[in-house]
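User: Hey, quick favor. My workstation is busy. Could you predict this chain's structure for me?
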Amino acid sequence: MLYDNYAMLTKRELLIRIVKLLKEGNLVDGVKYIPVEMRPRDDKNISCCVHKDRYIIRHKIISILGFDIKNDEDIDLMSLSDYAQRSLDNKNTKEDILSVVHESCNACMKSQYFITNMCRGCEGRPCMMNCPKSAISFKGGKACISQDDCVSCGLCAQVCPYHAIVYTPVPCEEACPVKAISKQPDGTEHIDKSKCIYCGKCMQACPYGAIMERSKIIDVHKALTDPNKKITAIVAPAINGQFDATPGQILAAIKKIGFDDVVEVALGAEDTSRNEAAELVERLESGQPFMTTSCCPAYVGWVDKHAPALKPFVSHTYSPMVYAAKRVKAKDPNMEVVFIGPCLAKRNEADFVPEVDYVMSFEELGAFMIAYDVDVNSCGEQELDAEVTKFSRGYAMAGGVRNAIVNAVGDGYKTMNIEGLDKKNAALLKAMVNRPAAQFIEVMACEGGCVNGPCSLAPLTLAKRQMKKAMER
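Assistant: No problem, here it is.
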């Protein structure tokens, strides 16, 4: 779930500052001043001292410039200006979509149960009696837990009559649905690419903003300002939940940044609905018991890496992003295509889609709008494509894909939607192989659907309200 916090605001301020420097043509000279300007000496420190605060800002800038953050000395040998120049020279290619800013990631202790001062040292001592590893003892009339012996079963917390025992998790590890992130010996987190599905939950959960995603804002800006290039933005339906404006105003605002054209990804959703509906009917008629959607790349990644038994039941239909990009390239093969959306996993999907050149997040779009002084509500209306229906724009919300397929094939099939890849839903999906609960199953990795993606601007409740208003308009 997306909640406002200062770490998030720091990231967004960095994006805005960097885009402003790009617009002014002053990135190389100006980037070195950002840490000092954002963390002046006369302000209260966030960490132990102003020098560490600035060092953390420096590392986050390097990540936004498109470089991997590594815990070695090389990162300190180059200035921010050198990194900026290398980024402008296209020397910032890296494999990892996510990286960890190690200087930020050192405050979380290993997940453990901890006894607070609420302990009354009661005679019953159920915590000690029920501990299967004898990890609890009493000293001075208070309980204490041996972390060497504790296996984090949680029985002590369950039986304590005073609720004096609390669980202190590592937020990113607790949020990850596939256990892809874990502590290294130096206390920092490591993301296992062989397990990661790029759902972005760790990035949202980290209270230090230590997990950063690969950014392509430098490449997008270069394409926007290159007179020899043409560039089209294809925008995810969830954009209508980010601003209190009409869909036409939002598209016009994006075009005002400098794009040659702006196309709704909902246009590609029309193709997805049509092809997925036909695929569903064909599969069921051939005897297959059920089929799941394929438009959520985090879910598809989860199946590939963690639930291969489900793979035969996942639709082969392309996602709306792919179909929208194919439409653009069909009209002009030389057009560069930028997908704009709330989804981290789209960065991974786009790496395997030749029609998509870049991926921008809603957060990065917001930075461009502020840097370019674009006010959505003062923009005129861009005409919407008449081919796009409310069902395709509804892909942004949980249940939207299911509604579109039901609209295409009728309500003669049993359908359901699953939102959020938590333990409960993961177990439910795996059980479908032997006991399918429906014939068509929509799966979204994010609770609430794409409007609650990890790179969104608006929290879910606000996004839902604005989506509803946009749909009514």
